[in-house]
Design brief:
Elements lengths: L1 E4 L1 H19 L4 E7 L3 H9 L5 E9 L12 E3 L10 E9 L3 H13 L3 E10 L11 E6 L4 E2 L15 E3 L8 E3 L6 E3 L4
Parallel strand pairs: 2-3, 2-5, 5-6, 6-7
Antiparallel strand pairs: 1-9, 3-4, 8-9, 10-11
Length: 190
């Protein structure tokens, strides 16, 4: 695997994003809602830089249940989410790809009745969005490649790596991968 973004650049950029968040919220209480599971490292590193009154909540969103390899209906599981009505929310996700998941999560949070909503993503894939969506905070724009590390995975592996790396292309068996809306499939299954 080739390193796309080394750990030291990630640390530096997360610190810069934290400064922006701190300035934007200027002492107001904020609830940071992380989208499981890819955001965990990003969320943990970001909050370590913040000196704000804050709460942390988690939400799970998936179009892929069980062994499915093609998207179904988006399922949002707010079981780990505290009461966010009337709160200022910063929604954090690991990657903005097509925009479908983040747009649906924002709509869900607005329906709950949040006071305000901002979105931060660690990565944004260039040229992949099908739903217009503009995050308030973006760590890095990256090419359309499948990336792992720093919380991002392939088949639940590689999340622990400190760098963001490009996973090599299709294997000999014709495997293809798409990231962001969490799809993995083989050409045999198309």
């Amino acid at each position: 695997m080739d390193i796309l973004i080394p750990a030291d650049k990630i640390r530096q950029r997360v610190g810069e994003l934290a400064s922006q968040v701190a300035a934007d919220y200027a002492g107001r209480p904020v609830t940071i809602v992380g989208v499981l599971t890819g955001c965990l490292m990003f969320l943990a590193d970001l909050v370590r830089h913040l000196d704000l009154p804050l709460r942390i909540g988690l939400i799970q969103a998936s179009s892929y249940r069980g062994e499915r390899t093609t998207p179904g209906d988006l399922h949002i599981d707010p079981a780990l989410l505290p009461d966010v009505r009337g709160r200022h929310i910063l929604l954090l996700d690991d990657i903005l790809d097509t925009g479908r998941t983040l747009a649906a999560l924002c709509e869900h949070l607005r329906r709950v009745g949040v006071a305000s909503l901002k979105v931060g993503v660690l990565l944004r894939k260039v040229g992949r969005q099908v739903v217009p969506f503009e995050p308030d905070y973006c760590g890095f724009e990256i090419p359309d490649a499948f990336v792992v590390g720093y919380g991002l995975d392939y088949n639940d592996e590689h999340r622990h790596l400190p760098d963001i790396l490009i996973l090599p292309g299709p294997s000999e068996d014709g495997e293809t991968r798409r990231q962001g809306d969490k799809e993995t499939r083989t050409q045999k299954e198309k």
